[in-house]
Amino acid sequence: MKQELTESPVPGGIYLCQVSEDVSCAACCGLYNAADCSPTGLQKMLADRSERFARLSRNAESIVDFGRQVKSSQLQNRPWDDFHHCPFIGLIGENRQRVGCLLHPLAAGNMGVDYRGLSHYGGMACRQYFCPSYRDLTADIKTVIQHLAANWYEYGLMVTEAVLLGSMVSEIEKRLGAPVHLRDVLDSPAGPRVLREVMFLKIDWPYRQGDGKGLCHYFFTDRRYVREPVDYAAAGRHPVGFETIFAELTSGFRTSDELHCAERRLEILFRQAADAVRCRSL
Ligand code: SF4
Ligand code: SF4
Predict the structure, then answer these.
(1) Buried b vs exposed e over 182-217: b needs ≥16 C-beta within 10 Å?
(2) Structure pTM?
(3) Which tens digits make up the pLDDT trace of 67-96?
(4) Of the residues 18, 52, 86, 132, which has the maximum number of CB atoms within 10 A of its CB?
(5) Residue 153 falls inside a structural domain
(6) Per the structure, how many domains does the chain have?
(7) For residue 218, what are the domain limits?
(8) Which atom of ligand 2 is nearest to the CA of 27?
(9) 17 in ligand 2 pocket by Cβ < 6 Å?
């Protein structure tokens, strides 16, 4: 929602919304609640609307009309009707390489004028909202995910997954028998690769249920759309551990073999991560 770090402190002390030239987030603006939320689908949609917005006269009537047009042309068939996808999310920065707010005073063409008051949430909410990850993620996880994210698409999908990321770090700590400082393994040979596999696991998770809602995350505290517990009836048993992680990954298992493979994949991953930490400590 926000494009720059103001002088006032942010909750948790680390600014999450804008990170670098190509890493940023607009998940709370509804970015991923789109009929096609694949990387290419979102990139195409945002590039198109950013291009159109660049040619728009900056006045209230044109901007409101632009929002209406985007809604009718791009925002049909969203997975969640009541999760607003703001039509003013666009691509920003010198080469339009990251997501951000087209109405922000620093966005191209706005000449310092803040147009966010014309949005669904209103200017105050857009300026002041901080998602639960600001409070719930540790500084260690925030730093590592910002370091490892390759682009806005994967960063915004994962930085809002506080429960999932916290649970995965706990699993690494269980295997280590000690608290983990992920930052310490970023400069070890295997550390970054293993940590990337852990932290961005959700994106290519093969056991995600196929209703199109698993990638997008409704993390607001009103809990309008909650993640349901996994139904293990088809697998014939509950997993040994990992129940929270499987639920946060919106998993579904058609057979006991599938559940076994998923458990094994997580076990190997967390052991590799624990080994990377141990090697760094030697
Ligand atoms: S107007 Fe508000 S909700 Fe829309 S993109 Fe900008 S910050 Fe997000
Ligand atoms: S979801 Fe959180 S990190 Fe992402 S833009 Fe909103 S407040 Fe910032």
Answers:
(1) beebeebeebbebbbbbbbbbeebebbeeebbbbbb
(2) 0.94
(3) 999 999 999 999 999 999 999 999 999 999
(4) 86
(5) no
(6) 2
(7) 161-281
(8) 1
(9) yes
